């Protein structure tokens, strides 16, 4: 019951230059648990924003009254990466030695916020559930750690997909849990759930 809401929420997205350049925003009104109404949309061209600074934007809603006030900062992506197995970070012995020195016991208190990072190699899945009428699935894998989320590409018509990707996450809280979820891509519809595993960092 507010025409001038203040959310004061912050969201972090990992933006890679080879991905979609437009940030899509939707505003919804909720009457109850069952009824929702779209109040408007707006779009931000990320490539047009100056980097390494906070941009204050007032965005008018398309085809609807009202506007959104947002602060958007585009900064270099540190610590997070997606790569193939053949160019895997930490594959170089010299780099691995530098990392081990950076996080050795004597350097533990140099930067309290720099806990470390997690590298995950997503190789393949085996004997997935068939989600399509053809007896196959179009699986992709989503990895979540804290508020960081990365995903693989989709392997179409396959119950034994091979992704062979390497994901690197900065660790912000040693008590976080790595959640790995497999979905079936379903066109314009929401993806179908195929399975999930949760791995506490403290168990690694």
Automatic annotation (TrEMBL):
GO terms for molecular function: calcium ion binding. It is found in: Membrane. GO terms for cellular component: synaptic vesicle membrane. Its main location: membrane. It comes from the Eukaryota. The keyword Cell membrane does not apply. Residues 1-59, 93-204 form the C2 domain. One of its GO terms (biological process) is regulation of neurotransmitter secretion. It is a multi-pass membrane protein. It holds the Pfam family C2. Keywords: Calcium, Membrane, Metal-binding, Repeat, Transmembrane, Transmembrane helix. InterPro entries: C2_dom, C2_domain_sf. Belongs to the MCTP family. PANTHER family: C2 DOMAIN-CONTAINING PROTEIN, MULTIPLE C2 AND TRANSMEMBRANE DOMAIN-CONTAINING PROTEIN 2. This is MCTP2 protein. It comes from Erythrocercus mccallii.
């Amino acid at each position: 019951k507010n025409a001038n809401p203040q959310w004061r929420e912050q969201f972090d997205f990992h933006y890679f230059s080879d991905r979609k350049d437009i940030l899509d925003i939707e505003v919804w009104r909720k009457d109850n648990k069952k009824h929702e109404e779209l109040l408007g949309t707006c779009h931000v061209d990320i490539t047009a924003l100056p980097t390494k600074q906070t941009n204050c934007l007032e965005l008018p809603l398309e085809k609807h009254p009202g506007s959104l006030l947002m602060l958007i900062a585009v900064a270099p992506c540190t610590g997070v990466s997606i790569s193939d197995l053949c160019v895997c970070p930490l594959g170089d012995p010299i780099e691995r030695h530098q990392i081990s020195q950076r996080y050795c016991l004597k350097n533990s208190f140099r930067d309290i916020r720099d806990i470390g990072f997690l590298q995950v190699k997503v190789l393949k899945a085996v004997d997935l559930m068939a989600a399509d009428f053809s007896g196959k699935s179009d699986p992709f894998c989503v990895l979540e750690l804290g508020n960081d989320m990365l995903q693989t590409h989709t392997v179409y018509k396959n119950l034994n997909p091979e992704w062979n990707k390497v994901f690197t996450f900065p660790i912000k809280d040693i008590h976080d849990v790595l959640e790995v979820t497999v979905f079936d891509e379903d066109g314009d519809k929401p993806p179908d759930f195929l399975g999930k595993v949760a791995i506490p960092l403290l168990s690694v």
